[in-house]
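From the shared-data thread, chain only:
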Amino acid sequence: MGIRLAESVGKGVFMSGNVIYFTLAVGLSPAQVGLGISAASLAGFTASLLLGMVSDRIGARRLLTILFVAEAVGFTLYPLVHSLPVFFALIVVMGFLEFGTGPSMAALIGTLVPPENRVRMRAVMRTVFNIGFSIGSGIAAVAVLGRDVLDAIPLSTAVLIAVAALLVRFLPADRARPTAVRAKKFSAVRDLRFVSVVGLSSVLATHVNIVLVALPLWVLTRTSAPHWTVPLMLVLNTAFVITFQVRASRGADTLSGASRMARRSGVWLAAACGIAAVTTWTSNTVVTMAVLITALLVFSVTEVMQSASAWGMAYGLAPERAPAEYLGTFDLHVISQNVVGPALLSGIVIAFGAWGWGLIAAVVLVAAALIVPAAQRARRPDSPVEDAAPAVPVAGS
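Structure, as tokens:
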């Protein structure tokens, strides 16, 4: 938990203040900063695939330590950035490192935690991350009050990530996995049944950018709600996830349970889209705000359910021979949202209004209907007869 808290506070400091830091301290335009952040997300595709395979070979704990140390060094270099090419080079490398930590962290949990407790552990860690991120955001808010202390944003993040790297070394070593059972390179992306589950999960994970991008833009451009409704909704969403994520993980510790939960999350997501569409026909500010808050809470229910279901399916489908690679490939269902979700979803709802919300809901319901049979088809022949998540040993460190 200490590792996750140190990492989340550090990431909260930087992610909450990075746009202000790059525009005021480095002198970049908002468009340049946005393009750099998008490029960093694209680097995550490669990182999740390649570093998952590396983790399987050298050990999750060892690779996680290396990545945290490299990240800490990278954050200390941000104050030296004074040109656009250097900014792009550094932020892409940092995006690669950051997204690469996911498969190693997930595989490490798979090694150290019993199968029946893995999803709950991921839920606890996500709760801790949200708490730490909120603390980091508060620190960043203080830092941006004065331009003279802007460099404290990346430097404080570097210190906290270094602490996380140190704490990783206190964890037990990974259990060794014989060389003979190692998988072929890129075996996860060659597993088309597994990839189909990842693709369907990407659709069910659209709540990520609906809450962060599409819904706020909808509030600002297509409703009569005051602008301060946006930060209010984001605070409510964070508080909801912190409060209910662990409770929502119950029942997602098996492949069948996780896939059924994914299906339910899709129904909730479609319902939330329908509620948001109602604001098209409301003109009273109080009524509009009430509908928006209701939609936000239903989106939040979707979020905690879909997150838990994704962890359960990822662990349930990851084979012994390449756990981190499969877990990293499953992470693409969220990374893809970071790359294409903001523009696609916001474009649909802003351009087409209620019909746009209806289109999203229809696509989500199709994915929800397909996710259970897809997960069962992707189940590996060596999965245990009882529907429990298989053990996920990782290469020795």
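The chain is about 80% helix and 0% strand.
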